[in-house]
Amino acid sequence: MTRKILTALLLTGSLMVAACNTVEGAGKDVQSAGEAVENAAN
């Protein structure tokens, strides 16, 4: 029982870390796209 709970917690933690990295990467992509548009406007 304890092993199943520990496994579930580790899996959940891993998914949360992966999700944060994905959101951070998407934010950087949007930022770079915005900068490209801004530079094109200048």
Automatic annotation (TrEMBL):
GO terms for biological process: response to toxic substance. It comes from the Bacteria. InterPro entries: Entericidin (IPR012556). Coiled coil: none annotated. Pfam families: Entericidin (PF08085). Residues 1-19 form the signal peptide. Keywords: Cell membrane, Lipoprotein, Membrane, Palmitate, Signal. One of its GO terms (cellular component) is membrane. Belongs to the EcnA/EcnB lipoprotein family. This is Entericidin EcnAB. It comes from Sphingobium chlorophenolicum L-1.
